[in-house]
From TrEMBL:
Protein name as annotated: TPR repeat domain-containing protein
Repeat (TPR) residue spans along the chain: 282-315
Keyword terms: TPR repeat, Transferase
Transmembrane segments: none
Any Pfam family the entry gives: Sulfotransfer_3
Coiled coil spans: none
Keyword set includes Transcription: no
Gene3D superfamilies according to UniProt: P-loop containing nucleotide triphosphate hydrolases (3.40.50.300), Tetratricopeptide repeat domain (1.25.40.10)
Gene Ontology terms for molecular function: protein-tyrosine sulfotransferase activity
Amino acid sequence: MAHAPASAPNPPLPDALAQAAALLDNRPEAALAQAETILKRAPGLPPAELLACQALRRMGKPAAALPRLATLARTHSRVPAVLWELAQAASEAGKTHDAILALENLTSSQPTVASGWFLLAKELRKSCRDEDAWRADLSGVHASSRDPELLKAAVAMNEDRLDESASLLEARLQRQPGDPAGCRLLGEVNWRRGDMTAALRWVERALELAPGFDLARDFLVRLLLQNNRLREALEHAETLGASPIRSPGHDLLKASVLVRLGHQEEAEQLYQKLLAQNPDQPQVWQNLGHVLKTLGRQSEAVHAYRQAVFHQPTMGEAWWSLANLKTVKLGPDDIAAMNQALADLEREREDRREDIFHLHFSLGKALEDATDYAASFHHYDQGNRLRRSMIRHDADAFSSEAAAAAQTFTADFITRMGTGGCTAPDPIFIVGLPRSGSTLVEQILASHSQVEGTMELPEMMMIAGRLQSRLDEGEFPDFSALISSLSPADRARLGEEYIERTRVHRKTGRPYFIDKMPNNWQHVGLIQLILPNAKIIDARRHPLSCCFSGWKQHFARGQTFSYDLTDIGRYYRDYVDLMSAYETAAPGAVHRVAYEDMVTNTDAQVRRMLDYIGVPFEQACLEFYNNDRAVRTASSEQVRRPIFTDGLEHWRNYAQWLTPLIETLGPALDSNVQQSAPDRAD
């Protein structure tokens, strides 16, 4: 008699559970069927019940899973997986209250599980418990700081193994796309790589996932500042200021945004508030000094800088800020204090190089005022050498770029390009080298009722940099091909972009505004292509006066050419050559103002300049020193006084040490800078 085949034996329960779990992600229906089969063999088995609920949720049936999970949680309330699944199902079923209760239990028993905190924050926001949600996000960030995988990626990043760090984080985010800490860290890796677009995208994603992630928002504000997206930076800084975890750093960051926006008075209020809470803050005293200097309140600025060095005698930037007040002289006691600060810093020289070079510049200025020119030059030289070692400046590459612009913008080329661009007449560009008298020109023009002074605006440099990147990436064979590719519509779009992006800096309804970024001389051709009705004023100064003054000036940012006498001589020569070529190609398009002419024949020079712009003469332009507008450059206090001539030839006191500069300038020394360029023919 034949026997019926024996049925396959059931696998052991652990194996059956493992098989069902393996089906969860891709075949949740099959996982559910297996879990239910197990439950028939072992009714109420908690792992099988949890598997069934997990499968139901993945099938889009959280409401069906919820009562079973609630029952399971009553007997297994300390099992994190049960609480997590209950919270997820409740959230997806719209049962916010139940989700919050489950997540509060989970985070109480498992405070190092970051994902629990972040989901709790999301549910709390649904219940309009915004401050509690913010605190939950912060707890999630704190928990993430102990995550071994994130720590490994952070170590790789800090050791400059950026590709390794990025690979670790990208793999993690494939598995956990909702991880705010991983997103923020990947944003920083991309920032260090120089990919600002990716950096912004990842940091913004971190804040979408965890709006209470204060460190990510702080980082985003700094990224937005670097991109000159000031309105957005202020919005995020204000949000950061509402954090339930108060930090003076939030106020400091907001103040820095306000300063960039030109809201000096509001920034001052924040600094004063911080100092009222704790006066022992040298950095805040220094920042307050910068604002007061910009507002023209010099005696208060001096007090603020003095407080900074009182609280931190080795604070080089505060000493330089004092020395850089051109109408203030540092005395013997100050010189002794700065020398002592240098001696104190010698033991930690590598870590305090910024303080050291600032102190050298400060001593150079103090000793110059004391007429000890040999000692003064020594300190200027030491400061410049140290600063030059910390920056990158390729003089050959820069000269090549300037030459390419000169060779491109010929008369024939300008004619061939024809009309185009944004026709707005609003901008007045003041270009040239730093320390060329451009702030004086700006102050004179900003005293006119139809002209608004703003500051050194980066927008044109950013537009030009974006175009240059297309050349650097190989999209065009040379600069001329790049510029030739700009259609009239392209030029109009770029000009309109400039007008729109600079609008944030305009506080009045005046029809004209000044952009005093000196480096825009590199882009006079581009300016005329995209803003054909803009005015361009070339502020020129005797090459030795200008270059030496720039060399002994430490600039807060940029101007990387200025820390070596040969570099600055080459830069001046490139500038003269390009401006001369453009004058030949487009006579009168640029109006030249020689500083020496302006200080010796002010009335005539002011009238010629106003005629070029097309506005009537106003007496206020000759009384520019009465204008109380904010001025942020190194000459801020000088332009609050009537014209003076005592600084025209300071370089002669140092002539014996300026041979490298003189030899580099070569033919540029013979350019007749006091012969102003002819005006544009009407």
